[in-house]
Amino acid sequence: MCLSITFAHAQEKTVTGTVTDQGGVPLPGVNIVVQGTVRGTQSDFDGNYAIEASEGDVLVFSYLGQRTQQRTVGAGSTIDVQMEEDASQLEEVVVTAQGIVREKRSLGYSVSTVASDKVESRPEADVARVLNGKIAGVNITSNNGMSGSGTNIIIRGYSSATQSNQPLFIVDGIPFDSGTNTQTNFLDGNTESSRFLDLDPNNIESVSVLKGLSATVLYGNRGRNGVILITTKGAATGDTPSKTEVSVTQSVFMSNAVLPKFQDNYGGGFHQGFGYFFSNWGPRFDRTDDDGIATAAQYIRTGSNGLALLQHPFNFIADPTLIAGYEDLLDDEYPYKPYNGVEEFFRTGYVYSTSVNVRGGSEKVNFNANYGRTEDIGVTPGNKLLRNNFSLGGNATLSNNFTVSGVFNFARTGYKSPPNAVSTGSGAAFNGSAIFGDVLYTPRSVDLTNLPFQAVDGRSLYYRSGNDIQNPYWTVANSKTSQETDRFTGNVSMSYALNDWMNLTYRVGLDTYTELNLYGQNRGGVDGPTLGILRTSSVRNSIWNHDLILSAEKKLSEDLSLNATLGANSRRDTYAQDGIESQGQLVFGVLEHFNFTTPSSVNSFSGTSLNQNFEENLVGIYLDATLSYKDLLYLNVVGRNDWSSTLERENNSLFYPGASLSFIPTTAFPAIQGNVLNYAKLRVGYGSSAGFPTPFNTRDVLTLGARTFVDANGNVVSGNTVSDVLGNRDLSPERVQELEVGVDTRLFNRLNLNVSLYQKSTTDLITNRTLDSSTGFRSTFVNIGEVETKGVEVDYDLNLLRESEAGIGFNLAGNFTASETIVTDLAEGTNNILLTFAVAGEAANYAVEGRPFGVLLGSTIQRDDNGNKVVGPNGRYLVNNNITEIGDPNPDWTTALIPTITFKNFTLSANLQYRHGGDVYSVTTAGLIGRGVVDSDDPIDRESNYILPGVFENGSPNNVAISSTEFGFNTLFAGGINEVNVFDGTTIRLQEAALGYSIPKKMLEKTPFGSLSFTLSGTNLWYKAVNFPDDVRYDTNSSSTGVGNGQGIDFFTGPSTRRYGLTVRASF
Amino acid sequence: MKKISNILSLLIAALTVMLGCESTSLDVVESPNALNPSQASVDFFLNQIQLMTAQIHSGEEGRAENGLSQFGMEPVRMQHGFGPTYRENYDPSDFDRVWDNVYARALIDIRTMNPLAEEAGQFTHIAIGQILEAYIMMSMVDFFGDVPYSEAAKGGEGILNPSVDSGASIYQAADQLLIDAIANLNKDETSLPTNDLFYDGNEGQWRKVANTMRLKLYLQTRLASADGFGASASTARINELINGGQLILDPSDDFLFQWGTNNASPDSRHPYFDANYDGAGPSSDFYTSNYYMNLMANQYGEPDPRIRYYFYRQQSDFSGADVVTKECVTEISLPAWWDSSEPYCLVPATNGLSGYWGRNHLDDDGIPPDDAFRTLHGTYPVGGPFDDDSFRNVSGSGAINEGLVGAGISPILMSSYTYFMLAEAALTLNTTGNARDYLETGIRQSIGTVVDFGASLASGTGYEPTTAAIDNHIAEILANYDAGDDTDKLRIIVEQYFIALWCNGIEAYNTYRRTGQPDNLTPAFTTPDPGPFLRSMWYSQTAADSNTNIVQKSAPSTPVFWDTNADGFVD
To answer: Quick check: B434 pLDDT over 70?
Structure first.
C-alpha cells in the first residue's frame, strides 16, 4: 500500500496536512496520491502527511471504507481533510507485479492482501505458517511439529507433476529464495528449514498474494505457482512521518506438544504375555481377569501396592559390557505399571520474540530501521531456533529528477533439532536416526525417563536384551542436525523522471545466503552409522536480479488513459555446495572432523556427492499495458518472453501472454448503486506462463566414483557408470494457462464479498518419468501429460455490528476454498508417475490419468472375484501387492472463519478452520494402535479372539480365529496392508485466538508512550481430525514428504504444538 | 542535454550490470556435477561392472535385501524366509534394486563400454564384460523367467518399454556371449585391465570361467524342451567341455569376489557381514534356517567339518530362552503336518553341538528380542568370527571388528561346484566320468577351500577339523551314497552341493527346481499349505508399473523355461 518510489516533479512544493475521520480522530494509513501519477504517501500515526505536489495537482485521499476525497492544490501548502465513512468506493491501492501500484478496482484478477496486524506478534516464527488460513486458495502444511522445520505452500493446486509447485517470494521487489535445501531426501530426515524462515514476520508491513496467472505473468516462469509479495517495514518508507517513531514489541509464548492419549490398561508384550518388547500387547496392569504378569519369567513378587514387581530389564541385556557401572540396578525391582515416559520426554517450549522499529526522516530523505530477535525453544528436546534480523531501508529524492531507494536486510538464523528420519513404526526406516519413530510408541510399562540411556563407553542403552532400539534420550544427547544461515538481501532502485508521464527505473537486487548444515551422531548408536558420523556442508545461494523498467502514465483523452510498463529482467541463480562427511569417531562425544578416521566427499545416506553446483540464468522482456475508460472499464494486456539456460537453445524460449478486463457496473450504471449494492466489480482474466525445468536435465552424464571400492589390500578402485537419468535434449518448457472470472462486491454497507472461479491447465508437463530400469535408465525428464485445476475462492468480510453504532463491534470475516487438480492426460505407456520418494511397501503419492493429483496408491487386502476379502490359511488377510488407489489426499474444500469482537479498547478475535476430506496415509496411527499403546475408537478387546470377515481362497468363509495381537499388530500394523491405514483428514481447528487491549490514548498523554497494547494469543489451540481414532490426536496439518509435491503421507511426523502467550507493544 | 546524459548514465549502468557479465549467458546446459560421457574410461567401466556383478550376487551394504543369492537361499531353507505363504514371501518391490543393478548399471555399462573398448583394441575387457553379462542374464532368467534383453538398455534409442524375450532365447544369447568371450580372450589386446578384481588379468582363468559357465548353462537346461536345449544337447556339450579340459577344477581358479574391510567411504565389506555385525544387531532377515543347520550338525555321525566356519553360536544352551525369545520353546506338540524326525523349534544337539538358533521355514511372527541367542553367519564366506566355543555375544554394536572384519567372498563359481555339477550330469545324463568320484572331489575341495579360508582364525583354537575327521565324514557320506538308489544318490549329491553352496543361493535355488532334491526339506511353519512354490519370482514392482510390456504375474509360481517339471514338483 505504500510507495517506495517518489517521483520528482517540476515546480513542486510540499503539501502537508492532517487527515481525520468523521469524528475528527486522526486517521493513519490513508493513501494520498497525486492524481494521474504514481506519486503517493500515507498518513502517519497522527494522521499527518506530507507530499510533493504542484499547484493545480489533485490530491486523492483514499482509505478503505471511506469515501474518497479529492483536493486541488492551491496556493497554500496545508490541506487538512476530514474523511467520510462510505464503503461504496473501494479505492484501495495495491501493489501488483513488479511493484506496479494499482487501484484495486482496476484489476481484472484477484489479489489478496494481509496487513501487518494479521502477521506480527504471532507465536510462529515462520511467516508461511502465520498465513495459514488467512487467504483463500493458499494451502500451507508444516513438515512436522518441530520449530523451524520446513513448510509446504501450494497456491491454487498443482500445476506441475515433478517440478516445483512452490510460490515465488518477492520481498521488497526482488526475488527471495524460499527453497528448502534438503541435505538428503526426506527418508533420512526431514528437518531442514524453508528459507522464508529468514523473514521476520514482525518486520512485515504487508503481504500481497498474487494467485492467478494473469496477475503473475510479469514475474516470468517462477511466478506460475503464485507470488507472495512481501513489503517489509524497511521498504515502506514512502511516507514521511512528522517525527521519529520508535515501536517495540515483546512477546513470550509457551508451547506444548499435543500427544496421543495413551491407554493405561496393558503393558509390553505379545498375546497378553509379558516381554521386554517394543510392542504393548502384554498383560493387564490391574491384574484382574487373567493375571498374566504373574506367569512371566521376569516376575518376582507382588509389591505392597498390589503392583507386580519384575526383574529389572538390565538383567536380560545380552552384552554385559553395556551395563558396566549400572550393576546396582540389577537388583532393583521394576514395578509393572504405566509410566508417562513419552509425556515426560517432551517439554514445554518457549518463544521469545522482540522487535524494535524506528522510522523517521525529513522531507526528502526518510528511513526505517528494524531489529528483530526470535528464540523458539521447541517442545522436542534438542530443537531450537534463534533468529536475529536487522533491516534498514530508506529513500531519497534528489534534485535532478532522480529518486533513489533501497532496503538492506540481514538475517542470521540458527536452527537445530534431533534427526527425524522416516519411521515406519520400528525405529528409523533408513540411514538416519528418527526421533519420533523411537519415542511415540514406547510401551507403557517402560520407564523411559528413569532408565540410563548411555553406557559408560557412550553406546546407546535401552531395555531390550539385544539393545536393538536406540534410546530416544541417547538420540537427543548424541545426534543432531543444525542449519546456521547468514543471509543478506538488498536492493537499490533508481528512478529518473523522463517527463511528467514517463519514468525510467533500474532496480538491482541481491539475495544471498550461506547456510552451514550439520548432521552428526556420536558413535555407539543403534540407528545410523555405529561408528559415528559427521557431515557438514556449506551452501551459498545467490540470486542477482535486474529490472529495467520504462513506465508511462498518460491521459489519452477525456475518458481514456493508459498505464504502461515495458521491462527487461535478468535473473541469475547460483547454488554452490561443498561438504565433507566423516565416519569413524575416535573420541566419543567430540563431533569435529579431526576426530574421525574416514573422510569422504559423498553423502553416504543418499550416495550423492556433497559438492554440487547449479546455475541458472533467465532473461525476460515484458510489457504490461492498462487502458482505462472513465474509471469503470479497465483492459489490461500483458506478455512476457523468457529465455532460460536450463534448456537447449532450440527449446529455451517461450512467450506467454495474458489479458484481463475489469468492469465496475456500479460506476457505469449509478442507478443500481444503493444501500443494497454499494459496489460491484466484474472481472475476467486470462494468463499463461512457462515452466522451465531445473538445470542440467537435457544431457546424458557419466557418474564417476572416485572411491567405488576399497579392496582387501586397501587399494582404492575407481569406477564410472552411466547415470541412471536419461538426458533429454528435446525437453521443452511446460505451459500453464489459466482463465479466471470473479466478482467483488460490497453489500448493505457491511459486507464485502469477493468470489473467484478459475480453471488452470498445464500442458507438456515436465515429468520425471520413472522408467523400467531395463531401459538402462531409471528415470528421464519428458514433456508428457496434462493437469487441470478448477477451483473457487470466496472471501468475505461482514461488519455485523459497527462499534461506532453499538459500542461493540462484531466483524465476521472468512474465506472458502475448493479446488481440484486432475491429471487429465498421461502419455501412452505410462501407468502412473511417482511424485515423491517412496518407501518400499508403503503408500505413496502418484499422478494417475483421470484421477486427482497425488492419489495414494498402495497395497490392499486381496479380494476375490466377488469382492470378498480373502484370508490365508492362518486367518489373516492376504495382501494384494499390485498397488491400487487407496485414497485421495486432496481436501474437498477448506474454510476459515475469522470473528473479531471489539469493545472499547478490547479486541477478541479467532481463526477457526475446517478442512473437509483429504485422505491421510497415517503410519503414526497404524503404529500407535498396532503396537498397542493407544486404543482405537472401537477398542480391540485384548482378551478376545477375532475372526476376520472374509473368505478363504477356495471361497469358503473364514473360520480361523486370530488373537487380538494378530488383529491389532499383524493385521492393522505389520501386515503390509496399506489400505487399512488410510484415514479421512476432515479436521476442525481453532488455528488462532487473541484477546487484545490497548490503553486509551488519553491515559497515555502524560507518558512517553504513543501507544501501548497487550495481546494474549495462541495458535493451534485445539483441533480434531474427526475421522481419525480420537486418542491418536493426529494433526492433519503435517506431511512426512516435506516440501514438494507429496501430501497426506505420514511416517511419524511427530506431535504438533499448541502455542500461546502474551505480547506487549509500545510506541514512543 | 543533461536529461539525455542522465538517461544514458542510468541505461549504461543497468545494461553493464545486466548484460556485461555471465548473468545472461544461456549456454550452461552441461552439468558441472558429473562427467561428460566422452570422458569415460574403459578401465573404470570394467571396475564398476565387476563390482556390480558381486552386488547383484550378494547385495549391497545397508540394503534390506541382499542380492539374488539371498532370494535364492530363502525358499530352499538355507536362510529363513518370512512367508507365511510363498506368495507373501516377497513383495514385487523387493526386486526393484536388483533389477536396477542388472539393467541400469551392469548392462548399460557393458553396452557403453564395448564400443570404446573395441576402438581401443581392449578385447580382454570386452571378454570379461561378455562373461559377466552371460552370468547376470542367465541368473535373471533363472529368477524371473522371460525378461527384457534384446530391447534392454536401449532407452537412449527411445525404447522406453522394452519387451521381454523368452528365457530360452536369452540362454542362447548367453551361450553365444560365452563363445564370443573365449574368442575375444584369444585375440591380442592392446592392454589388460588395470584392476581386474577377479583374476588380475589372467586370461587363462577367465577362459575357464567361460567354459564352466557353459557347463552350468547346459546342466541347467538338461530338461528344457526349447529349441537347441534338452538332454541330448546338454550331454553333447557337457562332454565337449569335459574333454576340452578348460573347466574350473582347481580351487586356485575359483571364480569369487573378494570383499575388503573398509567400513566407510565406501563400505567395502561383505554385505552379509554388515547385516550381521553392524549396529542394531543382526538384521531381521538374517536367520539361518533350522533345516540347514541341522543338516550340517546332525545328518551324519559327526558334524560337518565346515560347520564352525559357517555359523557362529552366541550361546551353548537355551536355558535363558523363554516364550518371549522363542514362542515354540514352550510348545511341546508338533503341528500335524510336521515330521517328528525334522528339527522343529531348535536344532537338536544330536552330535553334541548345541546352541544353533535359527528359524523355521516361512515363520512370519514378529522378530523377538533374541539377538543374543541367534546363530550368526561365521567366517566363511562373509568374513565373520570362527566358532571356537567362546560363545560370546557378538550381536551388539561392539561387534564390528569380529572375525575377518568383513573381508569375505562372494562364491560365484567355485571348483567344488564344477564337480557337483559334473556328478549330477554323470548321474542323470551319463556324461563322461564317475558321479561318485565327482561327488567326493566336490566335497573335499569345498572343505579344503573353507578350511583354508578360515585358517587365520581357526588355527590354534583346537577346533580345526583334522584330516582324519574329514576323511571319516566323507567316507560316511560315500557309504550312504553307495547304499542308496538313484534318487538317494541324487539327493546326496544335491545335499552336499547345498552345503558347499552356503551363501550362493542362485545355484541352490536352481538346483532345487531342476532336480527336486533334497526332497525332504522341512515344511512351512504356520500352515500345511503355503501355496505353490516360488517357481520364479515376482517381476520388479517398478518394472511392472512403468513398462507397459511387462505384466505382473498373478502369482510367483510360473516355472522358467528350463523347469519342465510338473506342478507341485517342489514345495
So the answer is: yes
